[in-house]
Write a structure and sequence with these properties.
It contains 41 helices and no strands. The protein is mainly alpha-helical and about 900 residues long. The radius of gyration is 55 Å and the shape is elongated. About 40% of the residues are buried.
Length: about 900
């Protein structure tokens, strides 16, 4: 059954026109072959043909790189296994050759794939087939034509396969197996001398592999074998260069394995290498071995002399000098450097030797000698012994590094001396960015040494070399601060800000980071504050906020700015200064900047959420507290409350934040109404009232969210919102005003004071809504009367207002239903007076007068019955008057009699005359 599947899958793979699902078919085919029972023999010519076709298919696919190594190995595995399964009892030589080809190449492929088990299986098959073929050929005798040539070819193949087996054994750390394989190969070299180079290189590779695996004993064995095999037949050896390479690695292995134990072997190997072919690395290795084995200075000197006498091995000489220093042969190292300098004195590379000499002197703390060498180099640079550009650059770096370390240690004079050494190599008038940096560093030293004039001079030179450097302008800033030159410092800050907008070019990116300007501005602010220059520090921080790309840096700067302004305001209040208004405006601008940056941070989706909330919360609290200090300026108070609300929108919306939002919006609406009251004739009055309504609307939304989150039954928010909305709409003459009043009336446990306020707002100019006013007053009066302890004075006020609103003021307003309504209010007034022991006498007098005047108005309109009724009502208030009762009673009684008399006559004559009390 498995064989049928193999055939089917083979056909599928062979006839595939494209590479789709090839890997899947190969995997299935490979699994089927692995599952075939062993041992098994198949007498099927189709299977054998299939095996050959699969083999050829893998070869053609491999040429186009259409299948990978693993796939190729698996197809070869299948083809080779199928061929062996078809093997007869006595296969032909042709079949055996096919088996040898397939098995050896399959084993090699699995070896390349690091699958050593499969590799060993197929290589063993190849060896068996090769031995079978060799026996066949031997049995033919020497009489057959070309039999020796054929046998030689078989032996060559056997040697290759045995080397593969050795390679597999080395990879699996099976040293003895590898040795056995190579020993067989060595025995074959007597008959195959041309394979000497191949086998020598194979052993060298084993030596390299085991060296990398840190198995030095095995490595020394394989390298020795490589060298010995190469000596077996000089004609076909890898050549002297390769032999020397083998010996140098062998010496290195002995050195690392145990230099004391294998010292002689290591020296013997390296000496042999140097005899085979000279190479500077061989001389270097010899000196290394001598040093590690503790040889005397004289012995080492001999090796050094040999090295110098060779053909200009500068790099090796430099490495040797460093090695001598690393091995604590300081005297030898410096002596060798002197000899090197003399040896290469006429060469352009002499500067490189001098540089290393200086570097090693400084490393060993010999600064005086190092400085002497530097001064010699400076002298030589201007007397025909110029250093190469590369060497000069390296020397500059060395000098700057030395200067930098001294600067960090606050040894400014010493640092300056090292920078001056570097400056000595620049020609007068030379312009270079590195020179600008050098001058800036010198200026920093001068500043720390309190040498201001020299610092200014250095910065002027730096500006000539690199006028568009932020670092140059920063140095200018530092000097200006020390000179207390505010204008110059501000100008430097502006320049840094302008340059911050210029993109950093790729060649400058190593020296200037994208946010370098912002970092300098931050440092500038710190320097200004340390020198008590507040205004300059704020300028630097403002520029930092404008140009920095680092959100955290911007928020830190803004917090600092806010803190500085608050500190200034506190001082102004203590000194009763007049600058506080300007400080409020500056603080407002900083908070707006904070809002902008918080908004930008929030736009980075899914990031910095916590930071955004924390920053917004900090600034909203500042805005809130500042708003509370703006009692004298409703405009500023509104702006700060609005900002506090806007910032709170970026906070985590917990109950505390929602309460803050609600209060901010309430206060913003209240201040808008206050602004309107203060400037009723302003052109922006409609806009201010519209803003108030907008704040009220948003506050309603926040309030609903708060109500949904918990118990808010005692919170007066709804009442305040409705009052503010009523006032704003009343002044805008908004037709929705009545619906607002209805909402007020729907409130639970509505207070009479609210209704009285509504009534007052309904008639406060420019509003004029008497109907709504009276409605509110009537309900307020009703609520007063329902109270178990009614406040009679407030009841009286309600009645007073109702009467005042309802009484006709002219002939055209006299209507019976109006008079009837007002009569009811007067009855309320009389009942209140009757219930009150100390009702205000002036209020009684006002009621009396208005009733009497109404009667006279009716009299003038010939409504005599009504006139008598109202005059009589006025007379009824006389008994409630106190001290004034007697004087008014005498006057009014006479007038009332006169009116009645005139009324009688008027009824007869229809003559009407006006007669009013006042």
């Amino acid at each position: 059954m498995e064989l049928v599947n193999v055939k089917g899958l083979s056909e599928t793979l062979l006839h595939k026109q494209c590479n789709e699902n090839v890997n899947e078919v190969i995997e299935k085919l490979f699994d089927e072959v692995l599952s075939l029972e062993q041992p098994i023999t198949i007498q099927d010519s189709e299977v054998e043909e299939n095996a050959i076709q699969l083999w050829n298919w893998a070869v053609t696919k491999n040429i186009g790189s259409n299948i990978n190594k693993q796939q190729k190995a698996k197809v070869r595995h299948v083809a080779c296994r199928l061929l062996y399964l078809c093997e007869s009892v006595n296969p032909s030589e042709n079949v055996i050759r096919k088996q040898i080809l397939m098995a050896s190449k399959t084993g090699r492929t699995w070896l390349d794939c690091k699958n050593f088990k499969f590799a060993d299986d197929f290589l063993s098959l190849a060896v068996n087939s090769l031995e079978t073929l060799y026996c066949r050929l031997t049995s033919h005798g020497d009489g057959v034509a070309d039999i020796n040539t054929v046998k030689e070819d078989v032996e060559k193949d056997l040697l290759r396969v045995l080397s593969y087996q050795a390679e597999s054994a080395v990879a699996q750390e099976k040293h003895q197996e590898a040795v056995s394989c190579i020993q067989r190969c060595k025995e074959m070299l007597l008959r195959l001398p041309r394979e000497t180079g191949y086998l020598s290189l194979i052993c060298y590779n084993f030596g390299v592999d085991t060296y990398n695996q840190h198995t030095h004993e095995e490595s020394s064995f394989w390298l020795s074998q490589s060298y010995d095999i190469g000596k077996m037949n000089p004609k076909y050896s890898p050549g002297p260069k390769m032999q020397a390479k083998v010996l140098r690695l062998l010496a290195t292995v002995y050195l690392e394995l145990d230099c004391q134990k294998y010292q002689d072997k290591a020296l013997h190997a390296v000496n042999l290498a140097n005899k085979e072919t000279f190479h500077p690395s061989g001389l270097f290795l010899k000196i290394r071995i001598l040093l590690r084995s503790g040889a005397s200075d004289e012995v080492v000197k001999t090796g050094l002399t040999e090295l110098l006498d060779s053909v200009d091995p500068l790099d090796v000489c430099l490495s040797t000098a460093k090695m001598l220093m690393a091995e604590d042969r300081e005297t030898l190292s410096f002596d060798f450097l002197k000899r090197m300098y003399q040896h290469f004195e006429s060469s352009p590379d002499s500067g490189t030797v001098l540089l290393l000499h200086i570097e090693l002197l400084l490393q060993k703390g010999k600064e005086l000698l190092g400085k002497q060498k530097i001064e010699d180099a400076i002298t030589g640079h201007y007397t025909g012994k110029q250093l190469s550009p590369h060497t000069l650059t390296s020397l500059h770096l060395l000098l700057w590094d030395r200067a930098s370390k001294n600067f960090e240690a606050k040894n400014y004079s010493e640092a300056l001396q090292w920078y001056n050494y570097s400056l000595s190599f620049y020609k007068a008038g030379q312009l270079d960015q590195n020179l600008a940096k050098l001058q800036r560093n010198r200026a920093s030293c001068f500043l720390n040494l309190q040498q201001l004039d020299k610092a200014k001079e250095a910065i002027l030179d730096a500006a000539k070399c690199d006028p568009n450097s932020i670092f140059t302008h920063f140095s200018v800033f530092k000097i200006a601060v020390l000179e207390k030159n505010v204008e110059k410092a501000a100008e430097a800050v502006r320049e840094i800000g302008v340059l911050a907008e210029v993109p950093v070019t790729s060649e400058d990116r190593l020296h200037v980071t994208e946010n370098a300007a912002a970092n300098l501005l931050s440092l500038a602010a710190q320097i200004a504050l340390e020198n008590d220059q507040l205004e300059t520090a704020m300028k630097a921080l403002e520029n930092l906020c404008e140009h920095s790309q680092d959100a955290e840096q911007v928020f830190t700067a803004l917090r600092c700015l806010v803190g500085l302004v608050l500190s200034t305001m506190k001082n102004d209040n203590e000194e009763k200064s007049c600058h506080s208004d300007a400080s409020f405006d500056v603080l407002l601008s900083y908070l707006k900047m904070a809002l902008k940056n918080v908004s930008q941070l929030k736009q980075v989706s899914g990031q910095e959420t916590e930071q955004c909330s924390e920053e917004a919360n900090w600034f909203r609290r500042i805005a809130w507290n500042t708003a509370l200090q703006c009692e004298s300026s409703p405009v500023r108070m509104r702006d700060f409350f609005v900002l506090s609300y806007q910032l709170s929108r970026f906070c985590v919306p917990d109950k505390g934040v929602l309460m803050g939002q609600k209060t901010c919006l309430l206060m913003a609406a209240a201040t808008c109404l206050e602004i309107y009251r203060m400037f009723p004739q302003s052109e922006q009055q409609t806009e201010v009232l519209s803003q108030a309504l907008e704040h009220i609307q948003i506050s309603w939304e926040v309030w609903r969210a708060l109500k949904a989150s918990g118990d808010c039954c005692k919170d007066p928010t709804e009442t305040l919102l409705l009052l503010y909305e009523f006032e704003a709409r009343a002044k805008l003459n908004d037709p929705k005003l009545e619906s607002v009043l209805e909402s007020v009336l729907e409130l639970e446990n509505i207070e009479t004071k609210v209704l009285e306020t509504i009534a007052a707002l309904a008639m406060e100019p420019p509003a004029h809504f008497p109907v709504l006013c009276k409605k509110a007053l009537r309900i307020a009066l009703s609520l007063h009367k329902q109270s178990p302890h009614a406040d009679l004075s407030r009841c009286s006020n309600c009645v007073h207002s109702l009467i005042q609103l309802s009484l006709p003021s002219g002939v055209c307003e006299v209507e019976s239903h109006v008079l009837e309504e007002v009569w009811g209010y007067y009855e309320e007034a009389l009942s209140i007076i009757a219930a009150s022991e100390d009702f205000p006498e002036l209020e009684i007098l006002w009621l009396l007068t208005r009733a009497w005047n109404t009667g006279i108005l009716l009299y003038s309109l010939a409504q005599y019955t009504e006139a008598e009724k109202w005059c009589g009502l006025g007379m009824s208030f006389l008994r409630h008057l106190g001290p004034l009762q007697e004087s008014y009673q005498t006057q009014m009684s006479g007038l009332y009699s006169e009116v009645l008399d005139r009324l009688d006559r008027a009824k007869k004559t229809f003559i009407i005359e006006d007669q009013q009390l006042f």
